[in-house]
Fold these 2 entries.
Entry 1:
Amino acid sequence: MRLATVITEAGSTAAALDEDGIWRRLPAPDLSALMAAGPIRLDDLTDPLLGAVPVQPLPSPGKVVCCGLNYGDHIFEMGRELPAYPTLFTKYADTLIGPGEPIELPAGLKVDWEAELAVVVGTALWRAGRDVAAAAIAGYTVANDVSVRDWQNRTSEWFQGKAWDRSTPIGPVIVTPDEVDVAAGVEVICRVNGEEVQRGSTRTLVFDPADLLAYISTFTILRPGDVVLTGTPGGVGAGRKPPRYLVDGDVVETEIPGIGTLRNAVAFHAGPAHQ
Amino acid sequence: MRLATVITEAGSTAAALDEDGIWRRLPAPDLSALMAAGPIRLDDLTDPLLGAVPVQPLPSPGKVVCCGLNYGDHIFEMGRELPAYPTLFTKYADTLIGPGEPIELPAGLKVDWEAELAVVVGTALWRAGRDVAAAAIAGYTVANDVSVRDWQNRTSEWFQGKAWDRSTPIGPVIVTPDEVDVAAGVEVICRVNGEEVQRGSTRTLVFDPADLLAYISTFTILRPGDVVLTGTPGGVGAGRKPPRYLVDGDVVETEIPGIGTLRNAVAFHAGPAHQ
């Protein structure tokens, strides 16, 4: 099943794609509101929605936690060793944008791509083990953990390079776990202006989605609609010799076959990245 | 002026202390709700509140950003050099507790104290300079960035040692900027079981509150009620030889003269800190 927040002429609504490939309304203005209100009931499917277009699926997650260094090939390209624990940092709801929206950043930054599988929490998790965490996954979506490398590397803490407002594409849809076999492997792909720059498989994740949710829930509660980004495979621009960064007008495509593709253009502006 | 969220027999309310030392009701159930609704108008002061007790002042900040390594003496005790940029990481609203509440953590962790001045944002800030940021400060309060050192040091990213639910005391009141001269220096003090373990002055901050708000607003919007913790002075347990960590039943007092004192007991429990 595919879930989305869609816009129609009548406004925004949560929606699910039925067997005939038609989006049908779910009873909330978006998936964040729907998931906050309780378990998703697919017998709530009502009106067909004509001309529905998926937008950023989760406008108001309370927590967006990201895992770095979670694919062997990316770990080695960044010059690090396989980790004993997940490396975690955070973004905000403000960081996220939807399919087709521009990646808006001030000019002059070293901006890099990081295609990722994102996990959406379906039920609250607090000090959960792996099995409980696995059962709490509402679905998977695509994300690009776009990173401002110069700010990321100003200090030991990556947050200031990872949480630029309106820089992280996510979506276009959330696919329920019955349709996504992360252990067998789904491919995580990034293209820049049509050129493939990353391709990895989730079967090489060091910490899988259930591991990550259980680990995070050891110290902080996860609630329905919270999002965990699972890390990026090899092929980032900073790992190249010489490094390659995004320039104004570049088109970043982030794809997970079986889930969908995000297409976002880089839109640098003249506003201050002073400090 | 002192602002607080207080409880009375009638429930929770935002409140301000009048010239006679009496708490008076402000029109919202807490300071987070009051600040989200617009500028604080002190002509809104109404009923006197008898038996009012300050609790956690800001139950729902959208962003809690923390600065590490911001006092010279703490930087040197952690074996680091004076930084060119602030080191930033995050907590959640879930991380915060109020005056008198226990610091609840699983047994077996290396738990340390970090007394800090906290800044509360009063008006939205987006790509602000220093002067605009300074004018946007609603007030100051006391916080203790209680840190789980073993988890903080598992990876390069401190977040997982800093964001344990119900571990960071904050409050008891927010004092408006006209009463707190951070540049001249207010003292930031921590005591454990009555023994003073930290005492620093904000006049030695590397990055002052206006610097921090302006810097953060370069990449993410700050909204009324958001909180920035400004870092801790020297004297943390991890900086001692041998290191000293908190044990069950320890009473942590965090004081900034002119603002107030937090008193929180450590309550370790048997729940899992597995993983």
Entry 2:
Amino acid sequence: MSALPADFFGEIDPPQRLLMGPGPANVHPRVLRAMSADVLGQFDPEMTAYMNQTMALYRRVFMTENRWTFLIDGTARAGIEAALASLIEPGARVLILRAGRFGMLLSEIAERLDADIRVIDVEWGQIATLGQIEAGLAAHRPAVFAAIHGDTSTTTAQPLDGVGALCARYGALSYIDATATLGGMPVRTDEWGVDVVSGGLQKCMGGPPGCAPITISDRAAAFIFSRRKVESGIRRDDLADGARPAIRSNYFDLSMIMEYWSEKRLNHHTEATSMLYAARECARVMLQEGLDARFARHEAAGRAMVEGLRAMGLTVYGQDAYRMTNVTGVHIPDGVDGERVRRRMREEHQIEIGSAFGPLAGKIWRIGAMGYNAEPDKVRRTLAALRDVLDGA
Amino acid sequence: MSALPADFFGEIDPPQRLLMGPGPANVHPRVLRAMSADVLGQFDPEMTAYMNQTMALYRRVFMTENRWTFLIDGTARAGIEAALASLIEPGARVLILRAGRFGMLLSEIAERLDADIRVIDVEWGQIATLGQIEAGLAAHRPAVFAAIHGDTSTTTAQPLDGVGALCARYGALSYIDATATLGGMPVRTDEWGVDVVSGGLQKCMGGPPGCAPITISDRAAAFIFSRRKVESGIRRDDLADGARPAIRSNYFDLSMIMEYWSEKRLNHHTEATSMLYAARECARVMLQEGLDARFARHEAAGRAMVEGLRAMGLTVYGQDAYRMTNVTGVHIPDGVDGERVRRRMREEHQIEIGSAFGPLAGKIWRIGAMGYNAEPDKVRRTLAALRDVLDGA
């Protein structure tokens, strides 16, 4: 057995970084305190009351009346996979809007589910018009349409007004990933008319990574409940009864997870209690602030970031009209070593800013102001530090 | 929008229950404190140092030298599914030992993966002998063998000495679920010679639910890395190169998760930072206590529970030789309303004990003494409360 140091690596004692990248951001202290409460048994009436309260709170967060609004135990990516695995049958046609790294992730997951994948590909940093989306729906007649609301890889937010109604008209169920916008920009589930939306806590919700809130329309829930159940045994010959193919995952079988969160309380996993405490407190902080005030705070912080970067002579990436308010891309000036600047920001100023992926790797930094960090003083501190580092670069 | 109460349901403030069911158990205060630290960026050198330390700590916990020892972000069930989804190809033959509810879960997950399922079914509460396991391997020649170490549904621990060598002789990769035993009974990964073992924090590790430690042998890792990669795009025609079928999940693709935990640090999900802090502290607490002392503490608590229940004239379920040390089944006396007793234990004594599933539903209670709760005073308090409630029943 290989040796461990005598102190077993010491206590958890992280440096006090200011996390101004594309997420995670610093966690609201109230959320950290909520997580420090001891756990309860999963069917304790006090625990199931917390679960029901969390459902009610997230209906507000997702701006929806959807009964089925709850948490997936895993990171934001777990929420995406639970949605797609439950909505997509093998061979089903899926139309995916791809305009950045996370759009690519949707098609990667759909491929693993053996979907018949069709895509609307737009250049990174661009958006699709409602006309383009309708043309895709008309041409491909998919069973499922999937898109990203705010793709941090491009700092671009896809407008979604009218998308749900279009999908419904063409008979498609719709899925939206709102990981990077939930809590920071309006996620208008019911107004958009989309069927399933999932998010995370670690960006604008002011929580830690590891929990994926999700909301599901009755229409989508009915579809998911219509898929063949897989009991804890071997049943391979009951497709003749017309049931749809089973969901290929137990952990991501939303029909079972809904039954766990329903009055039936059917045992599935053991709810990740500490993360539920965190999610519940994130929503309480958000609703006490007020949705409009919160979105305005993110917008003001984002605008201050953009203006401050421009005032330094830097070129902001993307289009002002479709910019996410909570993360800003900025071109790395010619001759500047982007990674060296990031390292100096971290080491000299305790500030994290983000690098970029794919076609934008090495070309832009991504600077966030999310959740607890969407504050003028933190924007100013970040801009001042960046100016200091660039002056010395 | 439906109304929320004015106080938004108040702060998280759970009653102080003593959790003596089959898990979750109360969380060690050091672990709760570790989770109250703020998060770090996922590629921050301090964060990746915590990840590497966590790998080293869990090698000790799993009693292994396996390089690939890390965390799955999700509940213990997520660890099970990550292992099976990565080891089982569609159509692959899988031999599953089923002796309780969690053995049934293994076959349910395998069915969703379209495995060719063979089973060794033994009566609930019984174990399979090494001879039965060898006969199954010889008869079915499976690609994968899967079993549960301690199945809380039956409070029975399956002996695993020699199982890994047998599987290797018959060419099977082996998977063991140790959710309910890790941290309480010896999980001798290398001595057993098994390939993949996963666990959870919420039972004997003294942590909250929501994180699944896992360890993977080099042999199993090589197999998993040999499965076809799915890039973020559409590639459906490259099976001709002889690669094995892709893993059907992105979230549970252990090859990608290993690359995230390796020096390559390839981006996958964003690690659930607070749960990693919890997992790391659980392991530190365990290793500072010492493995032998910890196993002895659980054994003493379990023995005290069994003896105390018998001294009250109750009949303990199962066989003494194969009893899990951390959870005890006890028959509900004739004429006693088991659920009413559980409710009175909770309401009058703040103590949770467990009900049972399947063929044991309504027949036994399951009383745990796990992790932070495997202490003589907590066993005595539970026994005294049960005596009090039964005297008044």
